[in-house]
Amino acid sequence: MTDLTTRVGSVLLPNPVMTAAGTAGHGAELARYVDLSALGAVVVKSLSAGPWPGNPAPRVLPTASGMLNSVGLQGPGIEAWLEDELPALLDTGARVVASIWGFTVEDYAKAASMLADAPPEVVAVEVNLSCPNVHGPAGAGADTRSHLFAHSPEATEEAMKATAGCRRPRWAKLSPNVADLAEVAVAAQRGGAEAVTLVNTVLGMAIDVETRRYRLGAGPGGGGLSGPAIHPVAVRAVHDVAAARPGLPVVGVGGVAGAEDAVELLLAGAAAVQVGTATFADPRAPRRVLDGLRTWCEGRRVNRLIDLIGAVHRADGRGAS
Q1: Cβ contact 76:68 at 8 Å
Q2: Which of 8, 82, 122, 131 is labelled catalytic?
Q3: 131 is a catalytic site residue
């Protein structure tokens, strides 16, 4: 039987398959479909320090090879999550990765500090620096899509440093919509990130050709494209960051719908993967990917998952190990 254990920085996981933030709810919503304790970890929907209403409807739109979303990080806030959502999730035996976001460095610092006394089952905090479909507070005249923290190495480093108050390992979730992703990843590491999560959604938009109006409630803000369409983007991002910074653990996310998608990200250099958009079509997708990965490895006599991680970087020019 293949040893699927993996390590993301200081966090040891029994296997590399996690849910992706924003696709599995705030707590135990998927427990009726999946044994959440069997997954590597459950990454919950990104939370801000206080409640946030998100964007107007419609918020989700299917595309030819994935989906657009402009949910806008709606959430109850960390205090309510700790009291109302987390207990049921812990009852499933899951390992939990909390995800946080904010408009300012101070927002990130406050959100992180509110997790300082979270139960030890919250094994890490993923710092979402890269959601492309959140607008600034009403009346502020701000559109954060144009100045995401993850679009600037300096801002990324500053925000990561501000989140140290969570007192547990931090992963920086970064955007593919930048010229030099490796540079931003290095900045995140300088700021205290033990790992980087690659990638968030790609900027997208849809227009109704009959009404000549925007198809998402965010209007000209558009939304984030996810699913199979962005999988090659995620593979390239993971590959390039792993090559440029081999000592920095990477969590790969983007279009993982089956075992081979997960394997491709592992070969590119990811230590773990997240299953996101596929869960909307099949809430059992994370477990299906995990079972498929185990079958794939055993069928090819891969005894240890760690032998797959970054294997393409150890291959010769023809791609043979």
Answers
A1: no
A2: 131
A3: yes
